[in-house]
Amino acid sequence: MKVNREILTRGALQLLNQVGLEELTLRRLGAALKVRAGAMYWHFKNKEELLNEMATLLLAEAAPELLPARRQSDWKGWVAAFGEGLRKALLRYRDGARMVTGTKLTNTEYMKTAERIGTQLIKAGFTLRQCVVLLSTVYNYTLSFVIEEQAVFPRPGQRSEQYNLQRRNEGLSSEALPLMRQAGPVLFDRFERRYKEGLALMLQGAACQLDARRKD
């Protein structure tokens, strides 16, 4: 089989959905694609290089989801679309958020999308620093959020037994930890709702900063 980096990367993303991040190896990918080890290591020296390429492809192909459907949306619409689109893209792959965390981009395709979003924030009145801090905060929030979400639901609709809510409450005293008992459904269920609530808090804080700058 004649291969290139894109074929191997797409094959790796498919294999990721089957075996998860820990079990994804160059050797296993080669076996799945029936590619010789020499050809594999010609394109990727190690798993780290492969993960960099996988993350780059995931983020680049997510571009349409990271932009608002209506191009005339205000700055909040652009930031919300960025965060919500990123979450959806990460959830498309098993261990998607863990796979992307800590990787390095191998091309600038994703950066072009970030540039478009950042330009809208600058036009809205944010400083460059505020723009970078806001988008990076949403990015990091989304990655960490989805890491937890995928720990609770390793597969869509399949809750891990480690996050059984009834068992969790059985180990918490209703007298000493009444709030923690009630927090379970908020923390470990209906993730989409909690994600949007957290994102809304960030947007509110950013709006206050923007209002303060306009008054100066």
Describe the structure.
The protein is mainly alpha-helical and 216 residues long. It is built from 11 helices and no strands. Helix 1 (5-19) packs across helix 4, helix 5 (75-91) runs parallel beside helix 8 (128-152) and helix 5 (75-91) packs antiparallel against helix 11 (191-215). It is flat. The relative contact order is 0.10.
Give the helices and strands, then pairings.
Blueprint: H1 5-19, H2 26-33, H3 37-43, H4 47-61, H5 75-91, H6 96-100, H7 109-124, H8 128-152, H9 165-170, H10 178-188, H11 191-215
Helix pairs in contact: 1-2, 1-4, 4-7, 5-7, 5-8, 5-11, 7-8, 8-11
Can you summarize this structure?
69% of the residues lie in helices and 0% in strands. By secondary structure, the chain is mostly helical.
Beta-strand level of the residues, as a percent range?
under 5%
CATH superfamily of the largest domain: Tetracycline Repressor, domain 2
- Please state the structural category: mainly alpha
| Termini separation | 63 Å
Integer-rounded radius of gyration: 20 Å
Number of strands: 0
- What oligomeric state best describes the polypeptide chains here? single chain
Q: Within the CATH hierarchy, at the fold level, what is the topology of the largest domain? A: Tetracycline Repressor, domain 2
Low-confidence regions: none
Q: Specify the biggest β-sheet.
A: none
CATH-level-2 architecture of the largest domain: Orthogonal Bundle
Order of helices and strands: HHHHHHHHHHH
Question: With helices defined by DSSP (H or I, 4 residues minimum), what is the helix count?
Answer: 11
CATH class annotation of the largest domain: Mainly Alpha
Structural domains: how many = 2
